[in-house]
# Entry
Amino acid sequence: MLVVSRLELEANMIEKSKLLVILLLVVTTTAQGQEPTTTDISRKAIATLRIPGFVDFLVADGKAVWATNQNRVEKLDHTRSQPVAVVPVPTPCGAMALGFGSVWTANCSDKSLYRIDCQSKQVTSIIPTGLADSMGELSVAIGAGSVWVLSDSKGILSRVDPQTNNVIAQIRVAPYSYAAAFGFDAVWISNTGSQTSLGNGSVQRIDPRSNQVVATIPVGPAPRFLTAGEDGVWTLNQGDGSISRIDPNTNTLVATIQAGVKGPGGDITAGAGGVWVRGIYVLLLRIDSKTNRVVERYGPPSGSGAVRVADDLVWISAHDIQTVWVLRW
# Structure
């Protein structure tokens, strides 16, 4: 009887321990699932710049950024209230790229790629590539010694040699692809689909050694802007406001994050330990790349704009109210 009693007691203790573990898991899961409260960005910003015009897309240059604006590209410094450089460009559009001593921006009116020298602050070359989106909702990428831009909505990715400023390859990709990013030794492009497309979109991986598509990965609906970093390739899916995460080691979708940033416009970038998402109805989100959770939310909503990480600074633009904020991270 003594042996049986001990066994019964131990079994009872085990059952209680299991129940405690289950309760702890429930509490932890509930806490992790809670949405973060919205912080007024003016309370966290170390600088707020008022930039006349239509300040929009950004590219990092050290701690500073270059920004597209009406008929110009401007360089902004968070310690200065006015742009530190202004370069005339007819109609700059889309997310820019920086490399080879230059800023590279699409120009919508002539569907060309403009090269701006960072030292002279002058346009040094105009390359007639064509643009897949004449409205400018696109992005330029730099990597593998080249500049990459989606140049035709029928599905053409153009590769530009910065030594000659000429297009040296045109790669066939899925139609209705607009945004490009470089990372993990590859070019990544989002296949948004046409306005009448149903279902999810995809991301294609292009090997710069062969100029060939080597993988097509399904993601959320209408992916547009994307970023490569923080151990993943991330897309902003305008169709449902979700964020898709791709593992570049396996070329597979490994997470879908319900971020609530549905709608046109917006932007996404990786850096400073997280993934940052700019939306229309939500000013800014930060996703923890280790947990795939939205951990910070900033407001109030201020139309569309862009976000970029520049060293330890996070820059956010809002063209509707002619404002740029800077967070230190």
About this structure: DSSP finds two helices and 29 strands in the chain. The first strand starts at residue 38 and ends at 40. Confidence is low (pLDDT under 50) at residues 1-32. The two ends are 65 Å apart (CA to CA).
